[in-house]
Design goal:
The chain has six helices and three strands; from the N terminus they run ααβααββαα. It has helices at 14-34, 42-54, 59-66, 70-83, 104-126, 130-160; strands at 57-58, 86-90, 98-102. It has a three-stranded antiparallel beta sheet with strand order 1-3-2.
């Protein structure tokens, strides 16, 4: 896998370091997800986030992005519509095509969900010694870059995932 370097030397084997970082991040992700609201499924929340990032999508595209069957996505979107988080509307380019879009209530829901997760993690970070909290603060740009790399990979689709760096 191609890698950008900043010229600093690593004191551990790269694979060991990457695995240790990945394991720690995976544990934090699991912690955040376990402590999150249970009012909608993780797939429904991920679908809302996809709509927020990508804008209105065709149901078939949304199903492919989220890795579920089209009938399952249709059922999921119906539930999101009932909750007021998403809506179906005609495409401005082709009135025969129906797009699924995030509603303002859906955007507010996502923001509140993120704020709640961040708040729980901030409470834990506040319990750390100052040096460890500072180390996490120093890692924020790298963690943000990881998130952005994955977003670019997802946007590129299956063929482009290998090429994004």
């Amino acid at each position: 896998m191609p890698r950008e370097t900043d010229g600093t030397e690593r004191t551990r084997e790269p694979a060991d370091t990457e695995h240790a970082i990945a394991t720690a991040l995976d544990g934090l992700v699991a912690l955040a997800l376990r402590g999150g609201p249970r009012d909608i499924s993780l797939t429904a929340a991920a679908t809302l986030a996809t709509l927020e990032r990508s804008g209105p999508c065709r149901l078939t595209d949304l199903a492919e992005i989220e890795g579920v069957a089209q009938p399952s996505m249709s059922t999921l979107v119906t539930g999101l519509e009932r909750a007021g988080f998403a809506e179906r509307r005609p495409s401005p380019d082709d009135g025969r095509v129906v797009l699924v879009a995030l509603t303002p209530a859906g955007a507010d829901y996502l923001a509140a969900r993120r704020q709640a997760r961040a708040g729980r993690l901030a409470e834990l970070i506040a319990l750390l010694p100052a040096r460890e909290a500072a180390a996490l603060a120093a890692a924020v740009p790298a963690m943000t870059r990881l998130r952005d790399l994955e977003a670019r990979r997802r946007a590129a689709g299956p063929e482009g995932r290998r090429a994004v760096s």
